[in-house]
Amino acid sequence: MSFSSDAAETLGLQALGWLVSNEELLPVFLGASGAGLDELKSRATDPVFLAGVLDFLMMDDAWVMAFCDSLGIPYDRLIKARAALPGGAQMNWT
């Protein structure tokens, strides 16, 4: 499945909502991102911020699985969505 930027942003926003509802993981995200609760609201439509949300979730397989399971989506959907957001292009070092 190829992602449009709109579909990727929607998944990023769903991931942000999932993070906000997760009492254990939200403080970890806030600490890692340096964002405050007010900033979560103001940047919720920023594709760069949403890319950061997906990057954060993809740091731990358990987080990926918990989020994807909550939506009933395949685990690889996160990386596909991330590729459609700013900075998501795969680098080829050869």
List keywords for this structure.
single chain; 94 residues; mainly alpha; 6 helices
Q: How would you describe the overall organization of this protein?
A:
By secondary structure, this protein is an all-alpha fold. It has one domain (5-83). The protein has six helices and no strands. The chain has helices at residues 5-21, 26-33, 37-42, 47-57, 61-71, 77-83. α1 (5-21) packs across α4 and α1 crosses α6. The longest helix has 17 residues, at 5-21. It is globular, with a radius of gyration of 13 Å. The model has no long low-confidence stretch (mean pLDDT 91).
Write the layout of secondary structure elements.
Blueprint: H1 5-21, H2 26-33, H3 37-42, H4 47-57, H5 61-71, H6 77-83
Number of structural domains: 1
- Computed structural class: mainly alpha
Number of strands: 0
First CA to last CA: what distance? 26 Å
Low-confidence stretches: none
For the largest beta-sheet, the strand count, sense and barrel status come to: none
Number of helices: 6
Q: Strand-and-helix sequence, N→C?
A: HHHHHH
Question: Which geometry do the CA atoms define?
Answer: globular
Helix content: 55-70%
Report the C-alpha radius of gyration, rounded: 13 Å
Could you tell me the strand content as a percent range? under 5%
Mean pLDDT comes to 91
